[in-house]
Specification:
The protein is mainly alpha-helical. It is built from three helices and no strands. The longest helix has 23 residues. InterPro entries: Gaa1 (IPR007246).
Length: 105
């Protein structure tokens, strides 16, 4: 302290603000990335091994595995009507934005 400087911060020296918690979490994850990778991979393998034990009462129907066996709930005509409605609404919307609306209000 022979040069006249003290250990206390002066008015010119402001302490750095702490980074936000999400930034601190990101820095922590990046600095410990290998550990995070090992933990995530271990948890994934463990979950795959425990899946049959944890899902004992789960039932998968064999009929659900046959593609094309289900009947469609809507007809082709209804699909065509829906597509026509979408086109009409799209054209109406674009006409309104261009100021060419010919519909009565």
């Amino acid at each position: 302290m022979a040069d006249g400087k003290s250990d206390t911060p002066t008015e010119k020296e402001t302490p750095k603000p702490k980074p936000r918690p999400i930034v601190r979490l990101g820095i922590f994850l990046i600095s410990h990335s290998f550990l995070v990778i090992v933990i995530c991979c271990t948890a994934g393998v463990l979950a795959l091994l425990l899946l049959p034990v944890l899902a004992n009462n789960t039932y998968i129907s064999e009929n659900a595995l046959m593609p094309g066996s289900a009947s469609p709930m809507i007809s082709n005509q209804e699909v065509l009507d829906g597509n026509k409605l979408v086109k009409e609404l799209t054209n109406l919307n674009s006409n309104i934005w261009m100021g060419e609306c010919k519909c009565p209000l």
